[in-house]
Amino acid sequence: MSFSLPDFRRKWSCRGNMSAGAAMVTAAVGLALLLADRAEARNYAAPLDLFGLGAPRPHKSARSTKIPLPKPRPEEAPKATDVVAPEAQGKSSPDKPSPDEPGGNKPAEAAPPSEKQLSACRLALTEEVAIAPSIPDIRGPGACGGGDLVRLEAIVLPDKRKVTVKPAAILRCTMASAIADWVRTDMEPLAASLGSTITDLDNFDSFECRGRNRVVGAMLSEHGKANALDVRSLKLANGQAIGLTDRTISRDVRERVLHSVCSRFSTVLGPGSDWYHEDHIHLDLAQRRNDYRICQWNVWDPLPKVAPLLPAERPEEAPPREVAAKSEGSKDGAADDQKTVPPTAPAGKPAADPGKSRPATKKRR
């Protein structure tokens, strides 16, 4: 069997054309499928596209949601033009400037700060009782400070006279009220019994953030809580002073002060408690279990009066010592010349008393 190209072309010319068309159709279908796969692949990230650098995926169409509509306004409800919101009253529209505000750019005024509610002690401690203005709360390190504090500057007596606190004491309102009541009720009658009135209260210490007796690491003192006051004396109008630890003051007066403070304050420390309180009296209102109180103050007896050990100072009007010695020596010499020597008594007879004078007798001749 012989084979030649012309014979192949003559026999298979039509089939060849059909084969070429089928190849083209196959290529077109394959290309369409490839493009469809790539479009579908855009909806998913490539397995190796870790950082999302591939072609962005189209967003899915949002689902349509039904928004509920409000119920129809009832017929008996008032019209919207008749009702004005309370917060909108007195305020102009943001779009239209107010006639009182030029240009509508006037800033809104800040609301005044709400006043702190006063305590019952603060309401009772009026200017008729004490001059004690309130001060801001103190929040120091640890538990130092406190609230409801005042600066006690003076105590007003029932007859409107003032007892100045020198220097002014920073105390809690309750402690300041207790001090004022003590002076007005107990100390003023005591001063009246001495024939005078109180003018000053000697404040030795009030608020101070420290431990007890100023010992490092000790428990917080009541002074650190503004709940204590140290008093040394009460000065009177006649220039005298009632020193609470002064042993020259009458023991009866100091004992009256002792009974007064121990009945009012929860802690009283004075001489005999420790050496920290030998020259002043500590008063506080510390709260303890079962209302336990401490009153440690020994009222010592007055010191005995003894003669001074040193001689009195030489007066200024006295003459110099050299002149005085010469004058005294001359006087002593003249006196010695004028003195008579007493006669000596014979043996066996007592000597005559030089103090007794004997009548002069004439010598017999």
Fold blueprint:
Layout: H1 5-41, H2 120-124, E1 130-131, E2 134-135, E3 138-139, E4 145-146, E5 149-156, E6 162-172, H3 173-193, E7 198-205, E8 228-236, E9 241-243, H4 251-262, E10 267-269, E11 281-284, E12 294-296, H5 321-338
Parallel strand pairs: 6-7, 10-12
Antiparallel strand pairs: 1-5, 2-5, 3-4, 5-6, 7-8, 8-9, 8-11, 10-11
Helix pairs in contact: 3-4
Rounded to the nearest angstrom, the distance between the terminal CA atoms is 231 Å
The overall strand count is 12
Tell me the major beta sheet.
10 strands, mixed
Name the beta content range.
15-25%
Order of helices and strands: HHEEEEEEHEEEHEEEH
Structural class: alpha+beta
